[in-house]
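Project outcomes to date are best conveyed with an example. Our students and postdoctoral researchers have been running inverse folding experiments weekly, and each run begins with a structure described purely in tokens. The record below, which covers 247 residues, was selected by the lab manager from last quarter's runs and is presented without edits.
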């Protein structure tokens, strides 16, 4: 026995943070508002008709009865007794951009991914040592960590982890994070300074006032310096600057 498709009621919603009280979806092809579906060979005109068995205009007869497809308060319920409208909506070019079918299982899976990320981020933020807290505060949050108490810093980093869990986890796993933190420290401590309208990085040591690097157009001083730390010459400089910061 062949497997038969089980028809079921479906609910659709408009995408976006706000929805109008009434929204009429384009339901027929016209020159002014094309409504086409590419079937792999050619573009075929779509048209929703209540007395036809197909959503394709070239498969409909001349007695098509057209009705608007209306979302009320951003929602549209389509009974299983109306498979043509369901097929029409699945083929509609606005499917996924203008509107979407509500899939409770898919929504639940997405919610679980968000909740898992929130939990992982909050646990990770709780267990950070003070050095990493300062690094994230300085680089990801642009905080002046030298003027903050430990409690203030912990609070702000935990709020960041709670409100932006995936961004926090990505930041935590970024290999450039510590290098950028060191670069930022070098500028804030005055070991390095910017000259020529912020285009060049110079040493600011008692015995060395020479130019170190030029900053590429569109890059930031911190990122330029952190990238330099990854080079052979930069590794030696990084070690020297770290020792200077400890003094």
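After processing, the design step wrote out the following sequence:
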């Amino acid at each position: 026995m062949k497997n038969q498709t089980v028809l079921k009621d479906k609910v659709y919603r408009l995408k976006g943070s706000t929805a109008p009280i009434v929204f009429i979806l384009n339901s027929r092809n016209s020159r002014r508002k094309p409504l086409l579906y590419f079937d792999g060979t050619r573009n075929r005109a779509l048209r929703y008709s209540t007395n036809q068995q197909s959503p394709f205009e070239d498969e409909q007869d001349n007695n098509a009865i057209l009705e608007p497809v209306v979302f009320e308060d951003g929602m549209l319920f389509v009974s299983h007794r109306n498979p043509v409208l369901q097929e029409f909506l699945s083929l509609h070019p606005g499917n996924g951009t203008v509107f979407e079918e509500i899939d409770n299982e898919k929504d639940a899976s997405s919610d679980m991914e968000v909740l898992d990320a929130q939990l992982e981020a909050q646990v990770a933020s709780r267990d950070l040592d003070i050095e990493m807290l300062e690094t994230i505060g300085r680089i990801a949050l642009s905080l002046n960590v030298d003027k903050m108490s430990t409690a203030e810093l912990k609070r702000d980093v935990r709020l960041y982890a709670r409100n932006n869990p995936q961004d926090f986890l990505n930041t935590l796993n970024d290999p450039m994070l510590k290098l950028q933190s060191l670069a930022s420290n070098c500028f804030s401590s005055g070991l390095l300074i910017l000259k020529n309208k912020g285009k060049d990085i110079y040493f600011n040591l008692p015995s060395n006032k020479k130019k170190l690097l030029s900053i590429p157009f569109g890059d930031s001083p911190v990122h330029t310096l952190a990238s330099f730390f990854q080079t052979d010459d930069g590794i030696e400089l990084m070690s020297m600057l770290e020792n200077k910061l400890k003094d």
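Strands lie at 10-14, 22-25, 36-38, 43-45, 69-72, 75-78, 99-101, 192-195, 200-203, 211-214. The first helix runs from residue 83 to 91. The training component of this project remains on track.
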